[in-house]
């Protein structure tokens, strides 16, 4: 696994580290662009997640990399070879589809061997590889079963084994865990990460689950309506969202529109003021629940009055929606037993300006 410092994350240092390169690819269906001008570079062994709402073009992008959909324009390189017009089997990619279809009439072993047969591997070599793959996904005892005789999670692992069998340069996974229950999903995430690391394969992984994206990825590409909103590490995406869309899509937040005045302070349209030293001009401020805190005695000067609109107990913490000077903010706090805030209660809060993200208007694309 390559370890790069935060600063270098978006820079590919050596060209032989570069496994996947998408150059301005677009896909038009009639007049509508399913994918519009996407560029991306992925390094060897990198786990890169494509994240975005339904219909934003994730599957289309992945299928273009695999070769099942031809781009309307742009080009795709894999291992520095232009693959834009090559058929899928020449591309050195393994794919797990959104509905992880195994061939129902083939046994587990036959499913895994499928790609190897296409590549005309001799039988002995094939059998050895199938055995290795079954060991990798820890299901060696299931070789002779049919897919209908497996649990959802087992089918998932076999689909992964099948995609990895040909030792692809690129592994493409389209929402591989969408059919699994919450616990199995978490376990599969960890297993997938381990497998990907152990074979050091570059992986493009589609999800619309933000937690999955944040916990698994080296980098995340956030998409919206066929376009890239931001590419960055999970930390960058969460803490320094490039656009209001990214802020809203990843994690809870309140977005306050307003402007920065000549003193560097931000005032929202409703009148909530946050001291700072930003550059003057219209902007949006992103406030995460963890940045809204109950005032302590020491913070008297900066404390603001907040009226509780409603609150929801979530186990470890309570999520409280507050009205602060006409703006709605969400706070996440742990209250001691029996002291949960009720609608109408008035609390003193402070907004932490540490890492507070302000997005100037000119950086906000439509
Ligand atoms: N073969 C097709 N013909 C016409 N339009 C298509 C075709 N395939 C996809 N689209 C459209 O392209 C857009 C992107 O689809 P895509 O399947 O890439 O979305 P997605 O991000 O994978 O969504 P989901 O999260 O629901 O799987 C959608 O508006 C979809 O309707
Ligand atoms: Mg899809």
UniProtKB/TrEMBL annotation:
What are the recorded GO MF terms, alphabetically? ATP binding
The UniProt entry, under PROSITE patterns, shows:
ABC_TRANSPORTER_1, ABC_TRANSPORTER_2
What single Pfam family name could you report for this chain, choosing any that match?
A: ABC_tran
Start and end residues of each ABC transporter domain: 20-250
Q: Which domain of life is it from?
A: Bacteria
Task: Spell out the family assignment given in the record's similarity comment.
Answer: Belongs to the ABC transporter superfamily.
Protein name per the record: ABC transporter ATP-binding protein
């Amino acid at each position: 696994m390559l370890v790069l410092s935060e600063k270098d994350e978006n820079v590919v240092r050596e060209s032989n580290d570069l496994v996947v390169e998408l150059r301005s690819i677009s896909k038009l269906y009639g007049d509508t662009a399913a994918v519009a001008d996407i560029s991306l570079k992925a390094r060897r062994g990198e786990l890169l997640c494509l994240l975005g709402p339904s219909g934003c073009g994730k599957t289309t992008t992945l299928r273009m990399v695999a070769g099942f959909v031809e781009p309307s324009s742009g080009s795709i390189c894999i291992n520095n070879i232009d693959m834009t017009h090559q058929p899928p089997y020449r591309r050195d990619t393994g794919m797990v589809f959104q509905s992880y279809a195994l061939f129902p009439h083939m046994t587990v072993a036959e499913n895994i061997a499928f790609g190897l047969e296409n590549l005309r591997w001799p039988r002995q070599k094939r059998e050895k590889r199938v055995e290795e793959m079954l060991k990798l996904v820890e299901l060696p005892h299931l070789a002779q079963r049919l897919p209908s005789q497996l649990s959802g999670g087992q089918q998932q692992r076999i689909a992964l084994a099948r995609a990895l069998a040909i030792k692809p340069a690129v592994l493409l996974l389209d929402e591989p865990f969408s059919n699994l229950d919450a616990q199995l999903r978490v376990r599969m995430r960890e297993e997938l990460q381990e497998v990907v690391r152990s074979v050091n394969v570059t992986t493009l992984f589609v999800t619309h689950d933000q937690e999955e994206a944040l916990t698994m990825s080296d980098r995340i590409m956030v998409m919206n309506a066929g376009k890239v909103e931001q590419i960055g590490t999970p930390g960058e995406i969460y803490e320094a969202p490039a656009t209001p869309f990214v802020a809203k899509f990843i994690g809870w937040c309140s977005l306050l529109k307003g402007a920065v005045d000549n003193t560097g302070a931000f005032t929202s349209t409703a009148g909530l003021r946050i001291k700072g030293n930003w550059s003057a001009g219209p902007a949006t401020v992103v406030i995460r629940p963890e940045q809204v805190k109950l005032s302590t005695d020491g913070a008297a000067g900066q404390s603001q009055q907040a009226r509780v609109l409603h609150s929801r107990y979530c186990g470890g913490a309570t999520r409280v929606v507050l009205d602060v000077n006409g703006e709605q903010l969400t706070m996440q706090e742990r209250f001691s037993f029996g002291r949960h805030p009720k609608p109408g209660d008035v609390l003193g809060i402070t907004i932490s300006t540490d890492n507070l993200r302000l997005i100037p208007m000119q950086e906000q694309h439509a």
